[in-house]
User: What shape does this take?
Amino acid sequence: MFKVKSFRISWLLLLVSFGFMGCSSTAPSGDASGARQDEPVKTVSVRIDTMTCVEGCFNGVKRVLKKREGIEDVVLAPQKKEGEIDNSVVLVSYRGTLNKSEIERTVLGAGFDSIEFLDADSGTK
Assistant: This one.
């Protein structure tokens, strides 16, 4: 009886160890947007007219956009006064292809009324 149990445990351990050995990936580094870490970072300007404050509005936009794959950073355009928004433009840095409709859905879903892409960028769709 003891030999049967130890034999089963040995097989189980052997199968588990083979499972872990086969987990390495040979896929190119990147994400679902097709972005690769060796691709250059591109930036597009986006106007969000109903974004009126830094603490709630801009930080909310930044938080939801940075969750999107391929988005590297979201920065508020220069303002006349620190802590106030008089220029409702954000600069979205990304790798790969930027899906404008997905970005628009994300911003609208965060409670803003409309967005406008200001740059004619060939890396967007």
